[in-house]
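User: structure tokens for this one?
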Amino acid sequence: MRIGILGGTGNMGGGLALRFSLMHEVTVGSRSVEKADESARALGAKAAGFYGSAMRGSIKGALNEDAVENRDIIIETLPASAAITTLTAIRDRFSYRQIVVSCVVPMKRKGKLYTWSPIVAGGCDEARSAAELIRDAVTPVRVVSAFQTIPADYLNDLEAVLDLDVLVAGDDETAVESVMGLARDIPGLRPLRVGPLENSKWVESLTPLLLNAAILNHLHDPSIRIVPWSP
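Assistant:
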């Protein structure tokens, strides 16, 4: 696939770029083309050094608006404060055939702990998920929510052995299946459906809970694994 990552020079975007470049053509986007190119060179060298001859994909840099065009999947990893405004500014670059994946987690810090904090857009005070607001910004493009509970440090450590679940929410079954297939391309990730896009609010709120669990219990980057009951 051809994957564009908005905010691809950040920790989460860079980690996903490293993992997906094994099999896919990845474009990391930024507000600065110089920053995007510099990040792409560093990530590409790291990926090539680890994957060697097994690497079938690539990593290149571009402005965020250029990282959208001619991509199959666009992954949104920008901070919540910039996600909606950026997408609104470049919405004419999208095609209805594309899929946008929201990794956005709107949260704020209170003291040393975190809480989920909804984005207020267009004067609307309704506590909707970031993924739903992203859907509003890019309609009729399909939006799927995923990867919020996967620690970026795990993705950036290519030697890390992952054994984690990816909670996937979306309203379009074909788009959900495509994103689940993409998640399976990262060894050790198991995608699980969790219902319609409106359920993204509960998935997004898990990230501040995990951060609080790490802070209060001295844990290193906890994540999610759904374990069935065995009688």
